[in-house]
Design brief:
3% helix; globular; mainly beta; 177 residues; 10-stranded antiparallel β-barrel; Lipocalin; disordered N terminus
Length: 177
């Protein structure tokens, strides 16, 4: 996969109002090897990334209206759990995150999927705090193909300039379908 961080998240700029479908996250079901890149220092225009590996698995629940995944990063001493829930009335997904370091359920990001040159792209936004500072956070999912996907997280303090600070490249493991 190409190592670039300026995806749809930076091009959108405007508030997200993408709609979703109940099968949007079907691609994520199964087991994955994950390559992480996390910005060592945020808000300082840094290009110093921490690279580490992890694993992930995802399972659907409630007939696909929800799914749960766990990301394990043993070399960094943490795990995380994601809960995604589809609201059929609003046609949008809400995504919550909790990790083993803080044990705090983060506020949800909300959004859905569209396409970017033929590839499905999901964009999800919501309010959050970064070291006590109010920000907006954006998750962007890009489905590369049936065995590869990319997730990235970006923060903005002003709603205009987005800084990508975490990228995860997913590689399906053998027999995981």
């Amino acid at each position: 996969m190409t190592d670039h961080t300026n995806h749809v998240a930076e091009r959108l700029g405007a508030p997200v109002s993408m709609l979703g479908r109940v099968d949007d996250f079907d691609f994520l079901t199964g087991a994955w090897r994950v390559e992480h890149r996390r910005l060592r220092r945020r808000w300082v225009a840094s290009d110093d990334w921490d690279h580490f590996d992890g694993t992930s698995w995802c399972e659907p629940r409630l007939g696909g209206l929800a799914n749960v995944d766990q990301v394990d990063c043993p070399s960094r001493g943490f795990s995380g759990l994601t809960l995604r829930v589809f609201d059929p009335t609003a046609a949008q997904w809400s995504i919550w995150w909790i990790n083993s370091i803080t044990g705090r359920l983060e506020p949800p990001v909300i959004g859905g999927f569209g396409t970017d040159g033929g590839s499905p792209v999901g964009v999800f936004e919501g309010p959050d705090l970064d070291d006590g500072r109010p920000i907006r956070v954006r998750f962007t999912w890009t489905v590369v193909d049936g065995d590869h996907a990319r997730w990235q997280q970006a923060f903005t303090a002003d709603g205009v300039d987005w800084e990508v600070n975490w990228v995860m490249d997913f590689h399906r493991t053998e027999g995981a379908r």
